[in-house]
Structures are given as structure tokens and as C-alpha cells.
Amino acid sequence: MTARPNDPLLLAGRIIVVVMQAILGFAAIVLTIGLPLVLFLRDKITAEARVEFDNPDFVFPLAAVLGIMVFAIIFLVGAFWFLRLLRKIIDTVGEGDPFVPENAERLTLMGWLALAAQLLAIPAAGAALYIAKIFEDQEGITVDAGLDLSGIVLVVVLFILARVFRHGSAMRADLEGTV
After folding, report:
1. pTM, rounded to two decimals
2. Cys bridge to 124: 23, 48, 71, 163, which one at CB 3.0-4.6 A?
3. Per the record's keyword annotation, is Transmembrane included, yes or no (predicted)?
């Protein structure tokens, strides 16, 4: 199977993936730099929040904020890795040879990364709800937490596609062995 060398869909997919990787990488770097800043500036943040919220008893939820930042960094790194694997799959499609064992492994790993993101969202949502509870008297601060069915469907689809690619590459190897 050969692909058109100038397939616009593959080119667009590759560009989108590379741009998204750049955004995710930048966000991960910013959050990583922000972690120690929040830790070292917590007293200043608390003082400014007490004035802003007109609450002299306000206590900055440091552990929850740092926890969410750590969850976000882990999520961003995982998403970056997910897109890196997708870019490699796009490259094999562009080369005209997508049914290789490596793509089955990539899809399996993408499934595990998507599952990890779904599981990571549970404690992150808990921490966000905790912070929202602290700020419940403030207007405009809301947190929406719920089960993401599309993420669960993505996990299932990735694992099924991994099996399809594994089976397809095995069939191709059998066919090449008989020729």
C-alpha cells in the first residue's frame, strides 16, 4: 500500500500534532517553573488573597494547588508522549507502511496513556473541588467535575486498534513468508 506523497490530510495531521506538542511542552515548562514559585511565594500570595477577598483568616490551600500543578504537569507530559506516538504512526502511514508491529505497540501505549489520564483526573478533580469549596463565597469560581465517557471510549478504541494493527502486521508477515 502506498500513500500519496503530498497527502494533505497527513500533512495537516502532522502539523497539528507538532503544534500541539509545542503548546504542551511550553505549558509543562511554565508549570514546572511555577511550582517552586508558588511554594516560595505562598506567604505573599496568602497576604494578597486576604486583601483581595477581604478575609483576614484566609489560608492559601498550598497542598491542593501544588497537587493540581503536579497532576497538570504529569498530564501534559503524558499528552506530549501520546502525540509523539501519534506522530510516529502518521509518519508510517505517510511512508505507506502503517501495519508494522511498532504501530500496534504505539497504539497499546497510547491506550495506557489515555487510561492513566482518566485515572489521574479523579484525584485532580478532588483537589479542584476542594479549592472550589474554599472559594465558594467568591463569584465566578466554579469547578465542573464528572465522568468523561469520551475518554473511556478513546481508551477502548485505542486498545482495539492496537489489536487490529497487531493482527494486520501478523497477517502481512505470514503473507510475505508465503511469497
Report:
1. 0.83
2. 71
3. yes
